[in-house]
Each structure stands twice: as structure tokens, then as C-alpha cells.
Amino acid sequence: MKEEVSSAITYALSKGFQIHPDAFKILEKIDVKELQSIIKQVVREKAKQNMFLINQSDLKMFVESEIDDSIENNHMIMFDPTKKVTSAEGIEGFLALFRDRYSKLLKIMMQRSQSKKLTPISNVTNGKLDEETYIAGLLMDRRIDRDVTKLVIDDPSGSIELLIFNKEIQDTANSLQIDQFVMVSIASGKNGGFFVKEILVPDIPDHIANRSKTETYAVFISDLHVGSKFFMEKEFTEFVSWLSSPDPIARKVRFVLVGGDIIDGIGIFPNQDKELLLLDVDQQMAKATELLDKIPKHIKVFIIPGNHDPGRRALPQPAIPEKHNMHLWNRDNFFMLGNPSMVDLNGVKILMFHGQSLDDVVGSTPGLSYAQPAKAMRVLLKTRHLSPIYGKRTPIAPELEDMMVITEVPDILHSGHIHVVDLDMYKGTLIVNSGAWQSQTPFQASVGISPTPGIAIIVNLATMKVFTKDFTEN
Ligand code: D5M
Ligand code: FE
Ligand code: ZN
To answer: Which ligand 1 atom minimizes the distance to the CA of 443?
Structure first.
């Protein structure tokens, strides 16, 4: 018997465990370099359940050849901004960014029948209009003047001010995001000017989501905030051990998606150091790496950054730089991606976006709140843009291409940032906000945010059935 195997057995025996004869065979097959940490993990798990016999099923998942490979785990990275982001382009860049936003969204809008009646704004300023005239552009301004709502819309040919008198259309106008793309049917007013007859937004079409051929599970998490005094290490460790437990669902997990805010970072908000346990980014990253490293190798892990992670803050964000977590970058089953990114898992298209812009969307849209982030995520799908509002709290880089446009309709839209678990289904797209692993911070308490931490979201990619698993219980 190999020395590592006998020392693993000795360890288990010393903790009062028995080892089933079948388990010995499996022990022999485990990579000796990992044997010690695996046996410790199994002992800890079983002791918690008051079971002191280690059998075959407790060890199987640590042996590659014992993993059920009939469960498909195909992945394709469909979009990752990491290699595409450039340095700031200055004022030229902002014009280019908006122009690209306009042309990408116009292309999406062209699939609507009304787009045949589109006219450039510069052609409608002289007052003579056809029965049905549509213009399309970005909503630059909205003002409410007693009973009249005024909109300013720009396209590359010019700018136009429009009036709305109808209450219903005013409500639609009030739910629009500033800087979003709209298409509007207009008519000339009796006393000059133009008024709005109808507002159309890009939106996603009703569709049937793609499915995995095999019953494969994907787990969605975000907002670990490792390094914060409020990071829930115990619950997070429980979650990671669950992934290698004999639980029948855990056995079918092949993907874990991490939606940003891996660490708490340094200097992200005033006086943050009072809330930190680890005072340096590399220490925080090392701790996060140590925890994530226990995810078994047959599970593919996709990680995007959030506003607390190292690297550029402005959207789109490149992947967390390699120098901070070389070990994860080098692991074959870990994929460090930018924010936002799109991955195809067994045919199911998943758009991952940390969710910075949700603060602006919640803050500027009547009827939305932090308690229901999925409703705010619906707005992103309707605008076909992950960060429509420019110049508020969400920093957006002046790239030549607007990489935040939702060009392809996702089967799942995954965000975090709000720290509240919320699920929704919108026109065939599953919306997931994956909560957090950080308990309520004093700041969140002061602004009335009640997080729901310690919960993982699990999706069966064959059926799109979704359920939650709470690791704060017991
Ligand atoms: O964001 C955690 C939560 O706190 C999320 O709901 C947004 C909210 N948040 C973050 N910064 C602010 C400010 N400045 N005002 C109001 N609400 C805020 P996280 O990215 O984890 O810090
Ligand atoms: Fe967060
Ligand atoms: Zn965040």
C-alpha cells in the first residue's frame, strides 16, 4: 500500500472512523497529492452527519474514472470582452460608443414590420409627415412639464423634441431608461411640433429556451466578498463541500458560474477598511483561491469580475488579472472571463453580467426596488442593453464598440450585485439573481438593503427547472 494511502487511513481511524472494504479500492485510485485534503474533507462532512463509516460512495467523486461521463459538460465561450477592451478613447470614443449602440440596436429593430416606415430625424424637422412615420434613436432627455412629457431623441442625422399628452404613453415614456434605444411613431401637432403616437422598445422575442440533452446541473452564485468581515466562510465552505458530496443532484453538477465580487477589495467605498478582515487584495484573492480550489475537477467554473474585484472598474471589464490568481488561471477547469460574458453550456446560452447598472435602473424606474432585482433585470432584456444609462453611478468605458448591447437572446441571464436572490421567467429567458455570501453590512443596513445570503441557485439544463439550496440552515 502506498504511504499516502496508509496515512490517510490512519487519519480516519484516529478520528474514530471505520472504512468499508470497498472504499479501500477507491482510495488507491485517488491522486496521492490530494488524498490528505480529501480524507479530511470527508471526515469533517461525515462527522457532521454523525456517520462514522466511510464507504465507496463517499470517495467515488474524487476519482476521475468514477465520474459519470454520460452527463454532458460541453462548453463554448461565445463572448468575452477581455481581449477586446482598449484603453480610454476620450471624447471621440464616446461618440463612437453611442453610434455603435445605435447601429447594433437598429439592426435588432429592423426585424419589426414598423421599421419599414423609419425616417431619419433630419427628414422630419420640416413638418410634413406621412400618415405613419417612425423615427429611431437614443433617448437623450425626458422632462415632465405639468401635463406634458417631453422626450429628446437623437439619431446620427439629428435630434428631435417630442411631446406626449396621452397618459398611457406618458407612463410608457416614464419607464424608459435615459440613453436607451427607442422607436417612436410620430405625428405633427396643430400648433407646430411633433407628438408621440406609439413607443416601441427593442425587447426580446418570445422564444423557447435551448436545452441540454442530458440532465446536467449548473449552479449560479455571486458576491462572495472574501476578505470582508461579513463574508460567510462557513456557509460557503459547506456549499463547496456539497459539490463533492454523494448528494444525487450534486453528482450531476458540471458547471458553476460565479457572477462577480469574488473579493471585497480595498478602497471600494469610504472607510471600507473598518469592515475588512483581510487588508490586502492579494491576501483576499489567495483566500478566495484556497476556497474555490476545493471545487472538484470534473466541474467547470466560470468566473467574471464585479465592482469589488481587481482590474479596470469601467464596463466592460476584462477578466480579473492573472497576477492576482495565477493558480485559478492555470487550472484546466477554471475559466476567467470578463464582465459581461456569454457562455454556451450544453447548448444553453448564458449571459453573465455582474449587475452594476441595476443600481441606476432601480433608482430611476418607477415601481422597481432592491427587493426584486429580477424585475430590474427584465428592463435590461427589454432595452437589449446591460447598462443603458450613461453617466450615473455605473462607469462605462468609451470603447469604439458597445459591448453591452444584448445582441443575442440568452436562455439564462445571470447577475448578482444586489445580494438578493430572485428568479423570474421573461419571454422564455430564465432570469437569475444569485444573491451573495456576505451578510448584511452596516452600509446596506443604512440604505435598507436586506440581503438573502448563503443560497445557491441550481438549474437543470435539460428542463430549465430551477431551485435554491440554502446553506444557512442547521
Ligand atoms: O453592492 C451591494 C449592494 O449595495 C447592492 O444592492 C448595491 C448596493 N450599493 C452599493 N453601493 C451603493 C451606493 N453607493 N448607494 C446605494 N446602494 C449601493 P456591492 O457591489 O456588493 O457593494
Ligand atoms: Fe457585491
Ligand atoms: Zn457588486
So the answer is: 4
- Contacting residues for 404 by C-beta, under 8 A, at least 6 apart: 101, 315, 316, 340, 385, 386, 387, 396
Q: Is 417 in the pocket of ligand 1 (CB under 6 A)?
A: yes
Q: Which one, of 317, 330, 283, 290, lies nearest residue 387 by Cα?
A: 317
Nine cell digits for residue 345: 453550456
Tell me, using a 6 A CB cutoff, whether residue 419 lines ligand 1. Answer: yes
pLDDT digits (tens, 9 = 90+) for 67-111: 898 999 999 999 999 999 876 666 667 889 999 999 999 999 999
CA of 84 to the centre of ligand 3 (A): 22
Decide whether any atom of ligand 1 lies within 6 Å of the 261 Cβ: yes
CB 181 within 8 A of CB 383: yes
**6/95 Cα distance (integer angstroms):** 67
Which ligand 1 atom minimizes the distance to the CA of 451? 6
In the predicted structure, residue 20 carries a pLDDT above the cut 70:
yes
Q: 301 alpha carbon to ligand 2 midpoint, in Å?
A: 19
Distance CA 414, CA 292 (A): 19
CB 149 within 8 A of CB 176: no
Q: Is residue 155 lining ligand 1, measured as CB closer than 6 Å?
A: no
Residue 469 DSSP SS3: strand
Which backbone phi and psi does 221 adopt, to 5 degrees? -140, 170
Residue-wise pLDDT tens digits, 182-212? 999 999 887 788 999 999 999 999 999 999 9
* Neighbour tally for 467: CB within 10 Å: 12
Beta-sheet strand order (sheet of 217-221): 334-336, 300-303, 253-258, 217-221, 455-460, 466-470
Pocket of ligand 1 contains residue 254 by CB under 6 Å: no
Give dist(CA 222, CA 470) in Å, integer.
14
In short, whether 342's Cβ falls inside 6 Å of ligand 1 is no
Contact 171, 184 (CB under 8 A): no
Distance 344 CA to ligand 2 centre (A): 25
If you measure from the C-alpha of residue 50 to the centroid of ligand 3, how many angstroms do you get, rounded to a whole number? 38
Strands 455-460 and 466-470: antiparallel
CB 357 near ligand 1, within 6 Å:
no
> How far, in Å, CA of 363 to CA of 158, rounded?
29
Q: Which residues have C-beta within 8 Å of that of residue 214, sequence separation ≥ 6?
A: 70, 71, 72, 346, 462
Helices (H), 149-265: 167-174, 233-243
* pLDDT tens readout for residues 376-385: 999 999 999 9
Other CB atoms within a 10 A radius of the CB of residue 214 amount to 16
Distant-in-sequence, close-in-space partners of 269: CB < 8 Å, separation ≥ 6:
443
Q: Tell the residue nearest (CA) to atom 21 of ligand 1.
A: 417
